[in-house]
Design brief:
heterodimer; A: mainly beta; six-stranded mixed β-sheet; five-stranded antiparallel β-sheet; B: four-stranded antiparallel β-sheet; about 55% strand
Chain lengths: ~110, ~110
């Protein structure tokens, strides 16, 4: 059973507009969430994270929102740029679970249209 | 500052052949991981090593073995490759902040 779900396999957004990528999780033990970005033929790279004690974390154009009651998080990119075109993975970890690895969603392919 | 280095980058095998994927990290991380990425399946954990001398199964360990040679190196072995093991393989290590650092991947095709 999938514990981290990204229900949109792809998303197309116009350059300059806001991109919103969504992620849902089922495991209530998850307490740390991350977003990774992946370009073709490269490994995923860390983008932004949020602890369950917060509901928002911001880093430049990227903001992650966490709604624990709904078991939902979202990544907002404002404004969207052509270099943001990539696959975005949502990932989650439980307490002390860093050593056990992260649980990933299937990814959302973001396409920024000029 | 190489980070996580994987070799080879590409490999083609015939069914039944064996091979070892090599991974080394220079960040002094304790924990290392092997993931596979398949279309529509995301990243799935094969094996991990929480510290030197220990290894544990992940979500999809069947058909693989691993060796944590020392703190830096973590290898993944396919003893008898199968077409279902055609995938992109990523090695990763983790910092104290639970952020995984990934290598650039090995694209493996099993014919």
């Amino acid at each position: 059973d999938q514990q981290v779900k990204q229900n949109s396999p792809s998303l197309s957004v116009q350059e300059g507009r806001i991109s919103i990528l969504n992620c849902d999780y089922t495991n209530s033990m998850f307490d740390y969430f991350l977003w990774y970005k992946k370009y073709p033929a490269e490994g995923p790279t860390f983008l932004i994270s949020i602890s369950s004690i917060k509901d928002k974390n911001e880093d430049g154009r990227f903001t992650v929102f966490l709604n624990k009651s709904a078991k939902h998080l979202s990544l907002h990119i404002v404004p969207s740029q052509p270099g943001d075109s990539a696959v975005y993975f949502c990932a989650a970890s439980d307490s002390g679970g860093g050593a056990d690895g992260l649980t990933f969603g299937k990814g959302t392919h973001l396409i920024i249209q000029p | 500052n190489a980070g996580v280095t994987q070799t080879p980058k590409f490999q083609v095998l015939k069914t039944g052949q064996s091979m070892t994927l090599q991974c080394a990290q220079d960040m002094n991380h304790n924990s290392m991981y092997w993931y596979r990425q398949d279309p529509g399946m995301g990243l799935r954990l094969i094996y991990y090593s929480a510290s030197e001398g220990t290894t544990d199964k992940g979500e999809v360990p069947n058909g693989y073995n691993v060796s944590r040679l020392n703190k830096r190196e973590f290898s993944l072995r396919l003893e008898s490759a199968a077409p279902s093991q055609t995938s992109v393989y990523f090695c990763a290590s983790i910092s104290d902040g639970e952020k995984l650092f990934f290598g650039s991947g090995t694209q493996l095709s099993v014919l």
